[in-house]
Amino acid sequence: MKRKAKAMGATHSSGLASSQMSSAARLSASLSQGDLFSVPLEIMEEIFLNLPPQQVVCVCRLVCHQWGEVADSESLWRERCRREGYRLRDASRIPKDWRLFYFLCKKRRNLLKNPKGDQQMKNWQILENGGDNWKVEGVMVPHPNETVQKNFVTSYGMCKKSQLIDLAVEGYNPLFMDHFQPDIKVSDWCAPRWDCGSEYHICVELLNQRKKPVQTFAPETVYFEQWNDRQWTQMTHVFQNYGPGVRFIRFTHGGKDTQFWAGWYGVRITDSCVEISPAVDT
């Protein structure tokens, strides 16, 4: 527990300004040494629940042994999860570390920028721009996610695009990634036109500091036949137990039509996602 607390604390301590520490510091200063040990644990826990979580980890737990026990307690972080609405999808799968579960839930978000094409091709690196190039259009059939109104469309030549995610820049520092190795969940949605065959490719790589692959998800090419029902298909994968050293994630996808028709009759792609997720919530 002590080692985990140190690693999690390092995730937040670098950006903790003195002004952010003031409430915990004032609380400590207002109590005499005798008072520190006379406060009931349940009262101390309630106080900690009303402080920013970074202060609890980086400041409060260092004041004394009693405060450290409360700050490290399972009950504190389980209650914090309950109050902030971070619930288990499967009640039978209990987290091994409620504090880790809390912080992963709190930081959880899509690390890809512009995943639905709402900003045209912004934030994507074009690797291949075959045929009549990439294009962004409105969806042809409703997407399961009602907020998705646009998609990227490929042409008759191979079209591929990519994003490189720097985990440290996104707030997941090397100590945290190496110690906890949290699950990394990726997903992507693709669909064909009903009147044209197409193919779809995806490759997601976990990279080390030198940008060399540590682990790769690269399934076989998906082929859609001509005259299909043009339904959306989701590709998903969860990286687990990938070992230390992961510093970047490279997400690459694309495709083309198989009829070689001028225009944009190739596979349609949208709502791509890469997220650091709690293991019990995947």
From TrEMBL:
Domain annotation F-box: ranges: 33-80
GO biological process: ERAD pathway; glycoprotein catabolic process; SCF-dependent proteasomal ubiquitin-dependent protein catabolic process
Domain FBA: residue ranges: 101-278
A cellular component annotation (GO) from this entry: cytoplasm
Molecular function, one GO term: ubiquitin protein ligase activity
One Pfam family it belongs to: FBA
InterPro entries, A to Z: F-box-assoc_dom, F-box-like_dom_sf, F-box_dom, F-box_only, Galactose-bd-like_sf
Keywords: Ubl conjugation pathway
Recorded superkingdom: Eukaryota
Coiled coil: none
Protein name listed in UniProt: F-box only protein 6-like
Species whose genome carries this gene: Zoarces viviparus
